[in-house]
Amino acid sequence: xxxxxxxxxxxxxxxxxxxxxxxxxxxxxxxxxxxxxxxxxxxxxxxxxxxxxxxxxxxxxxxxxxxxxxxxxxxxxxxxxxxxxxxxxxxxxxxxxxxxxxxxxxxxxxxxxxxxxxxxxxxxxxxxxxxxxxxxxxxxxxxxxxxxxxxxxxxxxxxxxxxxxxxxxxxxxxxxxxxxxxxxxxxxxxxxxxxxxxxxxxxxxxxxxxxxxxxxxxxxxxxxxxxxxxxxxxxxxxxxxxxxxxxxxxxxxxxxxxxxxxxxxxxxxxxxxxxxxxxxxxxxxxxxxxxxxxxxxxxxxxxxxxxxxx
Length: 310
Ligand code: DON
Fold this sequence. Notes:
Elements: E1 2-5, H1 7-16, E2 41-46, E3 51-55, E4 62-63, H2 67-80, H3 82-88, H4 102-106, H5 118-125, H6 133-148, E5 154-155, H7 157-164, H8 168-179, H9 187-198, E6 200-202, H10 204-215, H11 230-243, H12 249-255, E7 260-262, E8 267-272, E9 276-281, H13 292-305
Parallel strand pairs: 1-3
Antiparallel strand pairs: 2-3, 2-9, 4-6, 5-6, 7-8, 8-9
Helix pairs in contact: 1-13, 2-3, 2-11, 5-8, 6-9, 7-9
The structure holds 6-diazenyl-5-OXO-L-norleucine.
């Protein structure tokens, strides 16, 4: 695998970086507020020749936050099977913000609408197998290490702790679902695993490498070995299209047109089937919680390279 800087990519970064002025970094998780809002980096991993190009500080690390939801979903379906998972979590997009509780009350039987909103993701994390919270977390971490092909990938303990100590809303979602039988077990343990998965830390290069696995329907781009069964990779990519950018997913499908998943840390995972994986980090967010400059960057990149799958 070779990796080099790209003048073309850098031109796009330079063009969109002023947009970082118009957004804000997430601060509802205190540790996330400490980043530089003008950071912007991008890596593109080409699966056809295992080369990677990047622009910006491609080694700068950030936490996955909601991007972890799609990865943990892939593991949960492998652990429990399609029927078990989708008996408990729906498949429909929602026009509501990612942390909304309202639909849990109005839908019967309180089944979260999809695995990309917080309620659905918490229910999915609860499904990960293991004899202890430590084993369940370790299985998630090991799976993400395989996807990134990097044994050093792990969580940023201080970000995990910062979220653990402040996530009243996520705890409320959990207790609501527990009352209605959607999840079972100890909520504090679940919050421990969930906040760690959200705090998994990596660079835009690692993220592009994970995108490359999805671009190949779950196969490792270097060894050709299956990491995610094809049918499960397909389900994950479909959720990325319908719900990956939260309540901006429709607009994103029109403007960019690829499976993608964002996180409040400012990361975006993009997948161009059979072509490449894209990793972006730009922590300045728009009102819907997506990287403001990252979105524009992807839009330009997709337009120039005809990425849209539609
Ligand atoms: O649960 C949370 O609120 C965060 N750990 C993740 C949320 C997130 O990334 C939503 N993204 N747009």
